[in-house]
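Here's what a typical entry looks like (NADH dehydrogenase [ubiquinone] 1 alpha subcomplex subunit 12):
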Amino acid sequence: MIRRFVDRLLSYKGRVKVGADKYGNSYYQKQEMKEGALVERRWVEYKGEPDSTALPVEWTSWLSGTRKGAPTPEEVAALEAHRENARKMAALYEKKEEERRMRARLTQRGVKADDLTLENMEVMMRQISGSDLNEGAESSTKEDSSHTKYTRVRDGQESSEPSVWQPRTSRSPKEVPKNPTPPANPSSSGSAEEPQGQGDNFQPGTWRP
C-alpha cells in the first residue's frame, strides 16, 4: 500500500495535463526514462468510475499513440458538432422510415395517408385497431345471442344454458287402464277359437295343448 502511494506521488512529478473531455476525465503525459531511452507516458484519470468504452474516440486514439498530438479544444468542438449532426440525421431517417411503414399499413387497410403526419397516422391506426376490436366483440356477442335464441325456442324456456339433445321415441306409450279386463278362459267356454281370416284380416286363435 505504501509502495502504491509512493508511485502515485512520483507520477505527479513532471506530469503535464494536456486536456479534458466533456465527461470531466483528465488526460496527462510525462517524459520518463525506460531502458536508457526517453519515452512518453500517457494516461487518463477518470472523474467517476473507470470506463474506457465511454472515452471519446479522439482521446482514445491519443492514449494508444495512434495520433501524435492531443486534440485541441477547437478540434473537440468540431467533432462534437459533427456527432450531434449525425445523431439528428439518424433520428430524421428513422422518423421517415416509421412514416413509410405506417403509411404502408394504412394503405393496406384502404386508407389514403399521403398528406398525413406521423402523429396523425398513429392516431388513425389506433382508431382502426379499436374499431376492429369492437367489431370482433360485436360478432362474438351476436353469435352468443343467436345460440341463446335457438336454445329458448327449442326448449321453450327462458334459459341461456345450452340444452342436451335427447332422441325422441317413435310413438308415445299408451295409457294402461287401471282395471284391465282379464282374458277369457278358453276352458270355461267349452270351445276353442280357431284362426280366422287371411292377410290383414287374419285373427289368431286360442292356443291349446
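Confidence is low (pLDDT under 50) at residues 187-191.

More examples are in the samples folder.
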